[in-house]
Write a structure and sequence with these properties.
Keywords: Glycosyltransferase, Transferase
Pfam families: Glycos_trans_3N, Glycos_transf_3, PYNP_C
CATH class of the largest domain: Alpha Beta
GO biological process, one term: pyrimidine nucleobase metabolic process
Bound molecules: uracil
Helix content: 40-55%
Radius of gyration: 21 Å
Number of domains: 3
Subunit structure: Homodimer.
Largest sheet: 4 strands, mixed
Strand order of the largest sheet: 1-4-5-13
Protein name: Thymidine phosphorylase
Amino acid sequence: MDAVEVIAAKRDGRELTGAQIAWTVDAYTRGEVAEEQMSALCMAVVWRGMTRAEVGAWTEAMLRSGERLDFSDLARPTTDKHSTGGVGDKITLVLTPLVAACGAAVPQLSGRGLGHTGGTLDKLEAIPGWRGDLAPADMRRVLADVGAVVCAAGPGLAPADRRLYALRDVTGTVESIPLIAASIMSKKLAEGTASLVLDVKVGSGAFMKDPASARELAETMVAIGTDHGVRTRALLTAMDAPLGRAVGNAVEVAEAVEVLAGGGPSDVVELTLALAREMLEAAGIAADPAAALRGGAAMDVWRRMVAAQGGDPDAPLPAAAERRDILAPATGTLTRLDARAVGVAAWRLGAGRARKEDPVSPGAGVLLHAKPGEPVRAGRPLLTLLTDEPARFDRAAEALADAFEVDGPGGRLPLVLDRVG
Ligand code: URA
């Protein structure tokens, strides 16, 4: 095989064979295909796309580059959720113990935040003592004992994707539906879950800005999962405004705990229940997640899950040292609060990181005093910015300069736009 031939074939719009794809991904992982050759191929894929057979072969090649976990010996059926990433998305924190409380085993391998979208591991690490870097044997023990575990994907899962994602990140080739689908699904299939629900976000705070491209991504991922024998379905959900009323790390944990206690913002509750119903149905479990949330069973699993991973569920969460309010400019109805801008502000306040190795500030973030559709009063707090370093306030406020509108044309996306699979 010759990398230049493979690149030229894709450049000219031809379909690559399974053998060409398997060889290219493997040779890249071994260092035989050079970074510049792989970046040229990725750019050709961005322009030319891939067929269903090509995406399947690409996913399979990345999956084969590492280990594949197997939980088929567990007494409970396994099911998992993956979100394509959003702002204020703390759903995993509630959903994982909730679905476990209904009888499933939920092996949730999560990531850290990069850029304006937060990461579940960063959020949970705000809990004193909590650790997400579990060895495979510890992960299996927590999953078997508690039914739920949230931990970091080890370096052995789809290592080709790890390397390729870093390359795509610096070559303008992240925004390709086949490459995103193969990247996400290779990691999810390596995780060994029997069923999978994808939460594909749509809107300013998401990768996919419009429903048509989100649907295409969802259909591509559902097809890959189905072809690999994993019961896979997807919901397309709104990310035009942040989810809930807290964006950051500790503040999102606090909001998730409110939901587990039976309260919390209605959009977080509604989306958690919609995803829980999909996961339970995919796992073949007839249970009512609303009852498990109301009756406290999900909270019990949360407390056991946090404790099993070294955390103290009763410890006070870290709080930011400094706060500054952003005031509503007028009295009326808030018609727009841009998810991406709020995510960027939280990131600039210290809740997120610019480089993989940067630390995050657990207390930093943004609190929302109104959501689109709610009334606001001129001069009253609309948002509260939280940080440990007051020098960060101005840059965060700049990100929010055009982020909201009072009595504008409005028009929010419905929370659940569509379902695939
Ligand atoms: N998330 C991933 O894991 N991979 C992508 O390509 C994009 C988002």
